[in-house]
Amino acid sequence: MNSIDNLKVKIYADGADRDGMLEMYAKPYIQGFTTNPTLMKKVGITDYTAFAHEILQAIPDRPISFEVFADEFTDMERQALEIKTWGENVYVKIPVSNTRQEMAYDLIERLSSAGVHLNVTAILTLDQVQNVADALKDGPDSIVSVFAGRIADTGLDPVPVMQKALTLLEVAPKAELLWASPREVLNIYQADNIGCHIITATNDLIRKLALGGKDLAEYSLETVQMFYDDAQSAGYTL
Prior knowledge:
This protein is an alpha/beta fold. The protein has one domain (4-209): Aldolase class I (TIM Barrel, Alpha-Beta Barrel). It has 11 helices and 8 strands. Strands 1-2-3-4-5-6-7-8 form an 8-stranded parallel barrel, surrounded by 6 helices. Helix 9 links the parallel strand 7 and strand 8 (198-201).
Protein backbone atom coordinates (compact mmCIF):
# COMPACT_ATOMS: atom_id res chain seq x y z
CA MET A 1 0.00 0.00 0.00
CA ASN A 2 1.27 3.46 -0.88
CA SER A 3 2.43 5.77 1.85
CA ILE A 4 0.98 9.27 1.93
CA ASP A 5 4.12 10.59 0.24
CA ASN A 6 3.70 8.16 -2.66
CA LEU A 7 0.07 8.91 -3.43
CA LYS A 8 -0.44 10.53 -6.82
CA VAL A 9 -4.02 11.65 -6.16
CA LYS A 10 -4.25 15.15 -4.72
CA ILE A 11 -5.94 15.24 -1.32
CA TYR A 12 -8.26 18.15 -0.54
CA ALA A 13 -9.71 18.70 2.92
CA ASP A 14 -13.50 19.07 3.06
CA GLY A 15 -14.94 21.20 5.86
CA ALA A 16 -15.84 24.62 7.17
CA ASP A 17 -14.36 24.64 10.65
CA ARG A 18 -11.62 27.26 10.70
CA ASP A 19 -9.40 25.49 13.22
CA GLY A 20 -9.79 22.21 11.37
CA MET A 21 -8.96 23.83 8.05
CA LEU A 22 -5.83 25.39 9.50
CA GLU A 23 -4.84 22.03 10.98
CA MET A 24 -5.03 20.55 7.50
CA TYR A 25 -3.24 23.54 5.97
CA ALA A 26 -0.24 22.70 8.15
CA LYS A 27 0.03 19.32 6.40
CA PRO A 28 2.04 19.66 3.18
CA TYR A 29 0.22 16.76 1.52
CA ILE A 30 -3.13 18.61 1.72
CA GLN A 31 -3.19 20.40 -1.62
CA GLY A 32 -6.54 22.16 -1.51
CA PHE A 33 -9.84 22.69 0.28
CA THR A 34 -13.54 22.33 -0.43
CA THR A 35 -16.54 23.53 1.51
CA ASN A 36 -20.26 24.09 0.94
CA PRO A 37 -23.25 25.83 2.57
CA THR A 38 -24.29 22.65 4.41
CA LEU A 39 -20.89 22.33 6.08
CA MET A 40 -20.93 26.04 6.95
CA LYS A 41 -24.37 25.77 8.52
CA LYS A 42 -23.28 22.73 10.51
CA VAL A 43 -20.51 24.69 12.26
CA GLY A 44 -22.70 27.74 12.85
CA ILE A 45 -21.35 30.16 10.24
CA THR A 46 -23.82 33.01 9.71
CA ASP A 47 -21.82 35.43 7.54
CA TYR A 48 -20.80 33.57 4.38
CA THR A 49 -18.65 36.33 2.89
CA ALA A 50 -16.85 37.18 6.12
CA PHE A 51 -15.98 33.53 6.67
CA ALA A 52 -14.65 33.19 3.13
CA HIS A 53 -12.42 36.26 3.38
CA GLU A 54 -11.09 35.16 6.77
CA ILE A 55 -10.16 31.72 5.44
CA LEU A 56 -8.60 33.15 2.29
CA GLN A 57 -6.37 35.41 4.38
CA ALA A 58 -5.20 32.37 6.35
CA ILE A 59 -4.92 30.07 3.30
CA PRO A 60 -3.86 32.24 0.35
CA ASP A 61 -1.93 29.73 -1.72
CA ARG A 62 -3.97 26.54 -2.15
CA PRO A 63 -7.20 26.06 -4.12
CA ILE A 64 -10.38 26.63 -2.11
CA SER A 65 -13.88 26.01 -3.47
CA PHE A 66 -16.83 28.16 -2.37
CA GLU A 67 -20.33 27.37 -3.58
CA VAL A 68 -23.09 29.58 -4.91
CA PHE A 69 -26.37 29.13 -3.09
CA ALA A 70 -28.98 30.67 -5.40
CA ASP A 71 -31.48 28.56 -7.33
CA GLU A 72 -32.06 30.81 -10.35
CA PHE A 73 -29.29 30.71 -12.91
CA THR A 74 -29.13 34.49 -13.23
CA ASP A 75 -28.51 34.75 -9.49
CA MET A 76 -26.01 31.88 -9.58
CA GLU A 77 -24.09 33.71 -12.28
CA ARG A 78 -24.04 36.96 -10.29
CA GLN A 79 -22.85 35.13 -7.16
CA ALA A 80 -20.21 33.22 -9.13
CA LEU A 81 -18.73 36.39 -10.59
CA GLU A 82 -18.64 37.92 -7.10
CA ILE A 83 -16.97 34.86 -5.56
CA LYS A 84 -14.39 34.87 -8.37
CA THR A 85 -13.11 38.26 -7.17
CA TRP A 86 -12.23 36.89 -3.74
CA GLY A 87 -8.86 35.46 -4.74
CA GLU A 88 -6.68 33.85 -7.38
CA ASN A 89 -6.93 30.51 -5.57
CA VAL A 90 -10.75 30.50 -5.51
CA TYR A 91 -12.81 27.94 -7.39
CA VAL A 92 -16.54 28.60 -7.68
CA LYS A 93 -18.76 25.62 -7.01
CA ILE A 94 -21.75 25.41 -9.34
CA PRO A 95 -24.30 22.60 -8.83
CA VAL A 96 -24.96 20.54 -11.93
CA SER A 97 -28.63 21.56 -11.74
CA ASN A 98 -30.96 23.71 -9.72
CA THR A 99 -33.65 22.32 -7.40
CA ARG A 100 -36.09 22.00 -10.33
CA GLN A 101 -33.61 19.70 -12.11
CA GLU A 102 -32.93 22.32 -14.76
CA MET A 103 -29.41 21.56 -15.88
CA ALA A 104 -26.70 24.22 -15.44
CA TYR A 105 -24.66 23.34 -18.54
CA ASP A 106 -25.22 26.66 -20.33
CA LEU A 107 -24.30 28.60 -17.20
CA ILE A 108 -21.20 26.45 -16.71
CA GLU A 109 -20.10 27.13 -20.28
CA ARG A 110 -20.65 30.89 -19.92
CA LEU A 111 -18.73 31.13 -16.67
CA SER A 112 -15.93 28.92 -17.94
CA SER A 113 -15.65 31.02 -21.11
CA ALA A 114 -15.44 34.11 -18.88
CA GLY A 115 -12.37 32.66 -17.17
CA VAL A 116 -14.00 31.53 -13.92
CA HIS A 117 -12.32 28.54 -12.29
CA LEU A 118 -15.26 26.24 -11.61
CA ASN A 119 -15.88 23.25 -9.38
CA VAL A 120 -19.01 21.65 -10.82
CA THR A 121 -20.61 19.74 -7.98
CA ALA A 122 -23.36 17.22 -7.07
CA ILE A 123 -22.64 15.09 -10.17
CA LEU A 124 -23.73 11.44 -9.96
CA THR A 125 -24.29 10.25 -13.53
CA LEU A 126 -22.01 9.77 -16.50
CA ASP A 127 -24.44 11.71 -18.69
CA GLN A 128 -23.87 14.68 -16.37
CA VAL A 129 -20.10 14.19 -16.62
CA GLN A 130 -20.26 14.18 -20.42
CA ASN A 131 -22.29 17.38 -20.61
CA VAL A 132 -20.13 19.16 -18.04
CA ALA A 133 -16.96 18.11 -19.86
CA ASP A 134 -18.35 19.58 -23.07
CA ALA A 135 -19.18 22.83 -21.26
CA LEU A 136 -15.68 23.10 -19.79
CA LYS A 137 -13.60 21.97 -22.75
CA ASP A 138 -12.41 25.43 -23.81
CA GLY A 139 -12.13 26.93 -20.33
CA PRO A 140 -9.47 27.40 -17.66
CA ASP A 141 -8.49 24.99 -14.90
CA SER A 142 -11.62 23.45 -13.42
CA ILE A 143 -12.85 20.60 -11.22
CA VAL A 144 -15.58 18.06 -11.89
CA SER A 145 -16.86 16.65 -8.59
CA VAL A 146 -18.49 13.23 -8.91
CA PHE A 147 -20.06 12.06 -5.65
CA ALA A 148 -18.64 8.56 -5.65
CA GLY A 149 -19.62 8.04 -2.02
CA ARG A 150 -23.28 8.70 -2.76
CA ILE A 151 -23.09 6.36 -5.74
CA ALA A 152 -21.77 3.68 -3.37
CA ASP A 153 -24.61 4.45 -0.92
CA THR A 154 -27.05 3.19 -3.57
CA GLY A 155 -25.29 -0.17 -3.77
CA LEU A 156 -23.34 0.56 -6.96
CA ASP A 157 -19.57 0.20 -7.24
CA PRO A 158 -18.29 3.73 -7.94
CA VAL A 159 -14.89 2.66 -9.29
CA PRO A 160 -16.04 1.79 -12.85
CA VAL A 161 -18.08 5.01 -12.91
CA MET A 162 -15.05 7.07 -11.94
CA GLN A 163 -12.86 5.28 -14.49
CA LYS A 164 -15.36 6.08 -17.24
CA ALA A 165 -15.60 9.67 -16.00
CA LEU A 166 -11.84 10.05 -16.48
CA THR A 167 -12.23 9.00 -20.09
CA LEU A 168 -15.11 11.40 -20.68
CA LEU A 169 -13.08 14.29 -19.30
CA GLU A 170 -10.37 13.85 -21.91
CA VAL A 171 -12.22 16.39 -24.08
CA ALA A 172 -11.60 19.01 -21.37
CA PRO A 173 -7.83 18.88 -20.79
CA LYS A 174 -7.85 21.49 -18.02
CA ALA A 175 -10.62 19.78 -16.04
CA GLU A 176 -9.71 17.50 -13.13
CA LEU A 177 -11.89 14.72 -11.77
CA LEU A 178 -12.61 14.94 -8.04
CA TRP A 179 -13.80 11.89 -6.05
CA ALA A 180 -16.32 13.44 -3.68
CA SER A 181 -17.92 12.13 -0.48
CA PRO A 182 -15.57 9.23 0.28
CA ARG A 183 -16.80 6.93 3.02
CA GLU A 184 -13.56 5.22 4.07
CA VAL A 185 -9.80 5.51 3.71
CA LEU A 186 -9.86 2.73 1.12
CA ASN A 187 -11.55 5.19 -1.24
CA ILE A 188 -8.42 7.36 -1.23
CA TYR A 189 -6.34 4.39 -2.40
CA GLN A 190 -9.00 3.44 -4.95
CA ALA A 191 -8.96 6.97 -6.35
CA ASP A 192 -5.18 6.86 -6.52
CA ASN A 193 -5.14 3.47 -8.26
CA ILE A 194 -7.44 4.55 -11.10
CA GLY A 195 -5.63 7.84 -11.70
CA CYS A 196 -8.32 10.15 -10.32
CA HIS A 197 -6.87 13.64 -10.05
CA ILE A 198 -8.30 14.76 -6.68
CA ILE A 199 -10.16 13.32 -3.72
CA THR A 200 -11.71 15.47 -1.02
CA ALA A 201 -12.17 14.05 2.46
CA THR A 202 -13.15 15.09 5.95
CA ASN A 203 -10.43 15.73 8.52
CA ASP A 204 -11.37 12.56 10.40
CA LEU A 205 -10.85 10.46 7.29
CA ILE A 206 -7.59 12.20 6.44
CA ARG A 207 -6.24 11.53 9.93
CA LYS A 208 -6.79 7.79 9.36
CA LEU A 209 -4.24 7.85 6.55
CA ALA A 210 -1.68 7.39 9.31
CA LEU A 211 -2.91 3.79 9.54
CA GLY A 212 -1.61 2.97 6.06
CA GLY A 213 0.46 -0.21 6.14
CA LYS A 214 -0.22 -0.82 9.84
CA ASP A 215 0.44 -4.39 11.05
CA LEU A 216 -3.00 -6.05 11.31
CA ALA A 217 -2.03 -8.34 14.19
CA GLU A 218 -0.94 -5.30 16.18
CA TYR A 219 -4.15 -3.52 15.21
CA SER A 220 -6.13 -6.55 16.42
CA LEU A 221 -4.41 -6.43 19.80
CA GLU A 222 -5.10 -2.70 20.12
CA THR A 223 -8.77 -3.37 19.40
CA VAL A 224 -8.97 -6.07 22.08
CA GLN A 225 -7.24 -3.70 24.51
CA MET A 226 -9.77 -0.97 23.71
CA PHE A 227 -12.73 -3.26 24.44
CA TYR A 228 -11.14 -4.41 27.69
CA ASP A 229 -10.23 -0.91 28.88
CA ASP A 230 -13.69 0.45 28.08
CA ALA A 231 -15.41 -2.37 29.95
CA GLN A 232 -13.17 -1.80 32.97
CA SER A 233 -13.66 1.99 32.98
CA ALA A 234 -17.45 1.50 32.71
CA GLY A 235 -17.39 -0.77 35.76
CA TYR A 236 -19.25 -3.63 34.07
CA THR A 237 -19.69 -6.80 36.13
CA LEU A 238 -21.27 -10.21 35.56
